[in-house]
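Q: What changes when MRU is included in the input?
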Amino acid sequence: MSDERAKKNIMEYETVALDDVNDALVILDQTKLPGKAELVSLHTGEEIWEAIYLLKVRGAPAIGVAAAFGIYLLAKRIQTQDYDVFYHEFCKQKEYLNSARPTAVNLSWALNRMERICTENSRLPVTEIKKKLKEEAVALKEEDIQVCKAIGEYGLTLVKPGDGILTHCNAGQLATCRYGTATAPIYLGQERGYHFRVFADETRPLLQGARLTAYELYASGVDVTLICDNMSGAVMRNGWINAVFVGCDRVAANGDVANKIGTSVVAAVAQRYHVPVYVCAPTSTIDLHTATGADIMIEQRPTHEVTDMWYEKPMAPEGVKVYNPAFDVTDHDLIAGIVTEYGIARAPYTESLREIFVKNNKIF
Ligand code: MRU
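A: The predicted holo structure follows.
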């Protein structure tokens, strides 16, 4: 790893970028990390869809930004000056990208925002609409950075210097355009000399905690310790954890939260040891149209991710039944606060989340 540190730091890479000159969406391929930092240029709808499905670009906010740049590039290619023809093709491409992953609401949120640019400007020439689509996608990326920073500032008020923090999956810079959500308080604390001790769950089966969170925190000089998913109880019982910070893929109106599989286990264990669990969620991840966690569609992933991936040979009997949901739902009563860019929502969430949207003129 010391050699790694001598190279370009992982934090200097952009997770998602637009290369407008070459009509490409450029992503840092996260399936190659931590071994290799490789940027890939995606041109076609199929390439973008596959990159999202295969988690080359992943994490709710990063998926949203990738989809916004993606739909802009696909729209740019539509050869017509007729708005109706353009809009019909735009919607087709939008639905296609939207089908890549079902749980993170940021995907449909970003695509809907891009669609609104078309409908609100339907009287303009198609070339002008395309320019506005680019501006919107660029703005969406810039906003993501500001939003993560604001989440970091609010999150930092919940902890004190020297605290132990546990996190699950990767809600870090790699999952966003900068700072991350759950890691934003950690990075801001790092800048301000808080000396947090961070514990990162490895996060089976795709190891986002080990490959990505431990990697980016370590590269940033944060005191991070990698643990297996089944060790969170042990570190909490030891009294090493003062707070849990996690990201999320969709927050329902009642405060139930879908996040990476295993989050609900961490939250249940944290309740046992009186450790507060904070969910860091930009308002783009809050879905007031979804009443409860039971209404959130949970993505099911292929079996080989559990049985074969990361192993030299299969580590389960051939043909055995495998259940591989990518996410689980953490019940709202296990959550001490939902940290948004506008402040911290507390129970009862049905009221506090709605209030944040109303107060800040957010569309829901
Ligand atoms: O399957 P992934 O790697 O996309 O899952 C990511 C998570 O569960 C993150 O915690 C969530 O998207 C928030 S990222 C700021």
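Observations recorded in class: The pocket of MRU is lined by residues 55, 58-61, 104, 169, 171, 175-176, 180-181, 208, 247-249, 259-260, 326 (CB under 6 Å).
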